Amino acid sequence: VQLVESGGGLVQPGGSLRLSCAASGFTFSSYAMSWFRQAPGKEREFVAGASSSGGVTKYADSVKGRFTISRDNAKNTVFLQMNTLKPDDTAVYYCNARNWAGNYWGQGTQVTVSS
Q: Which of 81, 110, 73, 71 minimizes the C-alpha distance to 93?
């Protein structure tokens, strides 16, 4: 099982980034996919989630209206479009796959929002 995040980096406040998470080694379309983040000195927190089909999505209040999660089950990839980024969005962002059979994490990608 592998979850490989990419797309992180340094961006100015108000800017945008698109994170990707490429999955392999399991039946991607059978798993709910989520993004979590962890800032220095803080606990890991839920950011956004999508059901196995992508038809149902959920967001943390702090990112609602700015972030969009989507998935491409044909390409075994989940995305997180992040707009209007704020310094408080600075964190390591992790991809998560979960269902009754398993709970998997990626290695994370750093997002830094700073001028």
A: 110
Give CA–CA dist 107/115, Å, rounded.
26
**Cα(32)–Cα(15) distance, rounded to whole angstroms?**
28
Cα–Cα distance measured from residue 80 to residue 88, given in angstroms and rounded to the nearest whole number = 17
Pairing of strands 109-113, 9-11: parallel
CA distance linking residue 8 with residue 64, whole number of Å: 19
Q: What is the mean pLDDT of residues 97-106?
A: 94
Chain position carrying tokens 């999508």: 50
pLDDT in tens, 47-91: 999 999 999 999 999 999 999 999 999 999 999 999 999 999 999
HSE (side-chain half, CA atoms, 13 Å) at 85? 23
